[in-house]
Amino acid sequence: MADTNYDRQNPAFYVLIAILILMSVGPVIILLANSMRLDVDITSGVGGLIFMPTIRNYETALCDILWYEPEHLRFCQIRFGGAFINSIIIALISTALTLIFGCMAAYALVRFKFMGRDTVSLSTLAVRMIPPAVLLVPVFGLWNNAFCLDNDYGLGAWIRDTFGGRGDVCLAGTHSGIIIVYVAMNLPFVIWILQSFIVQVPKSLEEAARVDGAGPFQVFFLVVLPLIKPGLAAASIFTFRIAWNEYLLASALADRDTMTVPILIVNNASEFDGLGTIFATGMLLAIPPILFTLFASRQIITGMTAGAVKG
Fold first, then answer.
1. Per-residue confidence at 254, pLDDT binned at 50, 70, 90?
2. Which of 10, 160, 240, 252 is 20–30 Å from 310 (CA)?
3. What is the Cα–Cα distance from 105 to 114, expressed in whole angstroms?
4. Which residues, other chains included, contact 103 with Cβ-Cβ below 8 Å and sequence gap of 6+?
5. For residue 203, how far is the Cα from the chain centroid?
């Protein structure tokens, strides 16, 4: 009979795990609980987790996109709902475009041989090391001047004559302008992380697919991409979080209609109506990254470790 004796874990190990879980989940629970409490309950310091929940704080935060007018509000002071939608649109589209371009560029750098391939690979990683603050002034200048439609002729003149105003259309103050910046900022990181995954895909699988009559795009989309799903999941998590939390570049390029949540919170902190509204906006700010991570939870652990060791 085989020996089935197992070494018992030290109780301190389980205590450490419990402490780490409490440190991770505890702040989220406190944030959620306080977001559903009235200000008088929060400041009183009594009741703990036993209280009558309310959604008034969420109604205050999302008053600009609700289909009804909350009874406790005389006017909508915070435009959090519009900024929340802007953040979701910008983060999702920039993440999708970054993954599309990044996986194709990484595949080309790994599989194709051309002059300067190593230089291009290293330069993409070097570009990611540049602090965003260094790019703030050049990007702002380009988006406001170089990449504008002239209002004297062509499309710019048609916009001026039809809709009025100056007529010149610039990337600054638009969703597309911010998305392009985020794609350019996150693309080097995605290329770098996906190269280590594509290297591990056996060339024999691609050659077998070509023998069976598959074209280049079929080989890439039907053979390579399914095998690097862990890398795509890991890259998408980090890319989404960077795009969701970025403030510096967005503050220079966004306007009133395209501002994201970080800009709204920093620039309008004095307009928040009480602590409950602040907790509610914090909870709303945390929900999309949490849901996005859970959506890729089946691949995220493998995605973070599979590229570390070459097989």
1. confident
2. 240
3. 13
4. 190, 194, 198, 225, 228, 232
5. 32
Higher per-residue pLDDT: 167 or 16? 16
Question: How far is the C-alpha of 128 from the C-alpha of 120, rounded, in Å?
Answer: 13
Superfamily of domain 81-274+288-305, CATH level 4 = MetI-like (1.10.3720.10)
Q: Name the 3-class secondary structure at 138.
A: helix
Helices 175-199 and 80-111, axial angle in degrees (round to 10): 40
* Res. 239: pLDDT tops 80: yes
CA distances from 14 to 10, 21, 24, 25, 274 (A): 7, 11, 15, 16, 39
C-alpha dist (Å) from residue 198 to 73, 107, 209, 223, 310: 55, 7, 16, 11, 11
Q: How far apart are CA 46 and CA 32, in angstroms?
A: 17
Closest CA to 179 of 232, 108, 101, 103: 101
Q: How far is CA 234 from CA 13, 213, 267, 278, 305, in A?
A: 28, 32, 32, 30, 9
> How many whole angstroms separate alpha carbon 133 and alpha carbon 183?
16
